[in-house]
Amino acid sequence: MGRGGARARRLIVVSNRGPVTFGRDAGGDRVARRGGGGLVTALRGLVRQHAVTWVASALGDEDRAVAAERAGEAVEEKAGDGSTYRLRLLAHEPLAYDRFYNTVANPLLWFVHHYLWPLARAPSFDRELWEAWNEGYVAVNERFAEAVSEELEAAPDAAVLFHDYHLYLAPALVRRRAPAAVLSHFVHVPWPASDSWHVLPEPIRRAVHEGLLANDVVGFHAERWRRSFLRTCEDIAGASASPTDGVVTAPGGRTRAVVAPISVDVGEYDELAHDVRVLAEEAAIAAARPEFLVVRVDRTDPSKNIVRGLGAFELYLEEHPEMHGRVGMLALLDPSRQDIPEYAEYLAEIERAARALNGRFERAGWRPLDLQVQDNFPQAVAAYKQYDVLLVNAIFDGLNLVAKEAPLVNGRDGVLVLSENTGAHEELGAWAITVNPFDVKGQAAALAEALSMPLAERRARAGAIRRHVRAHDIAAWAEGQLAALDVAVGARAGRIIS
Predict the structure, then answer these.
(1) Domain final residue, candidates 47, 69, 90
(2) Contact 475, 416 (CB under 8 A)
(3) E strand residue ranges, 245-302
(4) What secondary structure letter does DSSP report for 338?
(5) What is the DSSP string of 4-61?
(6) Which of 348, 331, 337 is nearest to 392 (CA)?
(7) Residue 353 in contact with residue 329, Cβ under 8 Å?
(8) What average pLDDT score do residues 377-397 get?
(9) Residue range 9-46, pLDDT digits in tens
(10) Is residue 4 assigned to a domain?
(11) Residues 370 and 231 in one domain
């Protein structure tokens, strides 16, 4: 049995970013700090319940030192609750990793997934981009596949859980080495239509699909992404797909596509709401806030649609002069991938839009927009508690955890304004105000509706979102992934899912 009473399993979790990253404290001693990103939070429950080996990239100097000291072998680590797991860090050749991450995974694949390419100008598959694919993305995926295969040799009964767009090729490489292995892959980003995939040359888009179809199970956050995957498997990989049960039949076998929207650790956010750092940040926000507060919390990623969101708030202020001095927007932005030119340029565009907005409307005693660009998680949670309107207007988003996190701790019956192109919209759209992310005027109207909504309706909507998230928490999501694998293991003959 597992630590919590569930059946214990051997699991190999595979992701680019690991659950911890190593550094040195002021005294020069090595310390392990919790890794960033929602994936780490989502999967740490597995560590409590199961025998987990986590395979990830060594991202910093101290990570690489740990990997070198262990000669590529796993090191035993402790989770926050005292449970243990094995961590195997892969120290990639620096140029190969830079090409893998900064040229192919981000922005190339990320931009494909989120429909971000300005196709009249980019991308262009010149020699440099092809080298980045072959000597970066392919090479790093081969390194991951080699490590996973070695772990499977020691534990052939382990199930392998690949994650996200960084590792599309690895499952097929592992399948060749271990034909009977149980493999799954969860895709945390939107799955675009076939036309978007045709941005990529045929060998690359086919390799992506064939890599995923080497898995027994492929998971998505939303039904619309699953449907799109089924169609692109037919269009690009020549497979046949059943929309009823999500089974894709390809030359290598059968793969089931499932829908399992990720969630949050409800208990963690209950605790965070009363954390002393969060309370201090909340006191500062409460002291400075106007009567009505619009909040957005995002990475400075072009897919998050921040510039159009600022434009919508500017239009709202233009159309509602009676709200001047009474309403403000707090935009807390985490600087994202600033080594990539497209991301650095987008941050500069955000800052220009912010200056223009404030320059137009600011007056003595009132600054309509408070834009802060920094990584400050306690401040973000504090803002969650204080919003009257939460703006989530992403162009496309695999899910969007902010839309689930913030209502859990909000104490003002705040209204969620939510893009129809987020995966979370399938779950929460009935209780949100839906917006088209490209319709700036529509978003301004949504802000007006949210800010004037009667208390009883706000309370009903906010309460419904909280109840849904609490009933569908991260533990339920994690166990759902394992249940899907149980179906695969129980029904397969050779490499068949039915």
Answers:
(1) 90
(2) no
(3) 247-250, 253-259, 292-299
(4) T
(5) TSSPP-EEEEE-SS-SEEEEE-TTS-EEEEEPPSHHHHHHHHHHHHSEEEEEEE--SH
(6) 331
(7) no
(8) 97
(9) 899 999 999 988 888 888 888 887 776 666 666 676 67
(10) no
(11) no
**How far is residue 50 from each of residues 43, 44, 149, 252, 354, measured CA to CA in Å?**
11, 10, 20, 30, 47
Looking up tokens 């987990």 gives 52
Range of the domain at 218: 94-263+475-491
**One domain for residues 344 and 217:** no
Looking at residue 390, its amino acid is: L
CA distance 195 to 199: 7
Q: Tell me, yes or no, whether 323 lies in a domain.
A: yes
Task: Look at the chain and report how many structural domains it folds into.
Answer: 3
What whole-number distance in Å separates Cα of residue 34 and Cα of residue 428?
Answer: 29
Say how far apart CA 83 and CA 36 lie, in whole Å: 19
Question: What whole-number distance in Å separates Cα of residue 395 and Cα of residue 304?
Answer: 6
Check which CATH number belongs to the domain holding 370 and give it: 3.40.50.2000
- Predicted pLDDT at 5: 45
Partners of 49 in the beta sheet? none
CA distance 277 to 271: 11
